[in-house]
């Protein structure tokens, strides 16, 4: 008798997988992972997958029992769906690692209601994604199936997981909501947080507009309580609204570094914080104007400004003031309430907290706005710091209705797999196909329960295509992460993503005779956005990188000029197109390194709930690639910043840039470390300034490795056994 998924006991695959971490003659026994993968299918997947005699029988069962929606399937003939399935079967897809298969079947594959059987294989999930996002277009469905089965394109988890399912969360990855300085807005935003957390995805909130603790309240004797009590309200909202306990509600709150509550805001994450103010589950982010870097560099005092008095004086919420430009006027204006703090002291407090907790994220808000081709102002980011889009504030009356409906943000994401996309028979067609898949999600998304999100999505049609597997690609092609060749490759690759998403956005605008709202006031409409590409052609220059792009179309100045003219004439459908997310579990399924940052270990160790440890060898690990797989913790973080800064030039939004530090820094890594190897606040200060000067828009998370440097098991090994 086969054991169901609920009571699998005598299995060998976990043990086989764990043997990768036990060296054999000082070599990594990689073949053990292949054995674990084979055992997983034999002992787990094959006996517990529900069998159907035909595609028709499978689809009838899945729709009749409310596993799949009928609507998207009814857009196609059965003959076409069967031909799509036949194509997918002919591609002979196989997972390359135990971790990839395990993650797919444990987190993504559809299971019976009682959790005892699998109802999907990888090919099924790909088929349902392709059919769903193509929305009846057979040619697009085939193209999408082709991109996904070859793992050139990977939709973000909410999209990949939920596409086609009858009982599902949203397909959108995350949301951004602005709060203005009044009780109606605070109340409405808490409701928005509850609703958005319920349907899935992380929620970003900016509290920069709220008056500080102690600020006067018109018509009342008392004074305002500041941002911290509001943070607590949001934290409780996310804890309560958690998709029926399926996932922890996730939120991030942002505050401008010139807000008077800044110290109290940071102290909510300190380990020794008073329980009354401590926030355990909220993430923190700072909005940092250029002026802060200047004041810290010059070791000057800085003034913090009351949002209430600034809004009264300027007639717009605090978020919409250019503090760098207005700083001297704000200081000189006697009607603006302000207080003084030492800029270096605050900078060190930020670094101390980053060492302790990894927070706060840093958004270089002026950098983001300088590079922004859209008319309007970027005022915040999302839970992973890669979404940077303009917003307009709402005005809410005493009946909690919108007198002015502003624009908030929902973002749907997808990722190119760099290793596989570089092998695409048609790079441009691949990227255009991905752009269409993401476009369907923005078109279909209609979050009525939060009108400002619904309005922003309806007007702006934003998407976020990104990338994963950069370090894997470098290692596979024997390039050191951060080397000149690696930067040259990064420059050309992300230029191509930019070019082809622009081409397709322009094609969609032509077809539909529709551009994003306010296109005419963008730098796309004037054409000035394209000038740098026309003036300075980006193309491979070294022999190595030329070889890597051999056979791939590289646009010339003339191609950019033609695209510029077409966009000026017909417009762009999407206000925003590119963003690089941190992509966690989804990169395992793709058997590639996450995002565009370096790997942390040759053999990564993952703690899985109830299971114990699972080991994941770096993709394509071999004696040839091993020297190019330097751990992020042993790498000069300026190399990582250089790679991100190179990609950032082409990405209209942001990237989740994580900095990886050891508590005890390897000798010789940073030239300023002459007195101690211990990580200090100065190290983080220097790296933040370096990222700022390189034009990086955001720093996501600081990960500090505090172990005793004893990299156990196979990470010490010097060679691999394949």
Summed up, what is this model?
This protein is α/β, with parallel strands linked by helices.
Walk me through this protein's architecture.
- The protein is of the alpha/beta class.
- Among the domains are: 174-216 and 224-267 and 280-409, Alpha-Beta Barrel (Anaerobic Ribonucleotide-triphosphate Reductase Large Chain), CATH 3.20.70.20; 413-598 and 635-642 and 649-653, Anaerobic Ribonucleotide-triphosphate Reductase Large Chain, CATH 3.20.70.
- The protein has a seven-stranded mixed β-sheet with strand order 12-3-4-5-6-9-18.
- Helix 10 links the parallel strand 3 and strand 4 (202-206).
- Helix 2 (31-45) packs parallel to helix 6 and helix 16 (343-357) crosses helix 29.
- The longest helix has 29 residues, at 484-512.
- The relative contact order is 0.11.
Report the portion of residues in β strands: 5-15%
Query: Which fold name is given in CATH as the topology of the domain at 174-216 and 224-267 and 280-409?
Result: Anaerobic Ribonucleotide-triphosphate Reductase Large Chain
Distance between the termini: 35 Å
CATH class of the domain at 174-216 and 224-267 and 280-409: Alpha Beta
**Name given to the CATH architecture of the domain at 174-216 and 224-267 and 280-409:** Alpha-Beta Barrel
Form type: globular
Structural class: alpha/beta
User: What is the tally of beta strands?
Assistant: 20
Mean pLDDT metric: 94
Largest sheet: 7 strands, mixed
Radius of gyration: 26 Å
Number of helices: 29
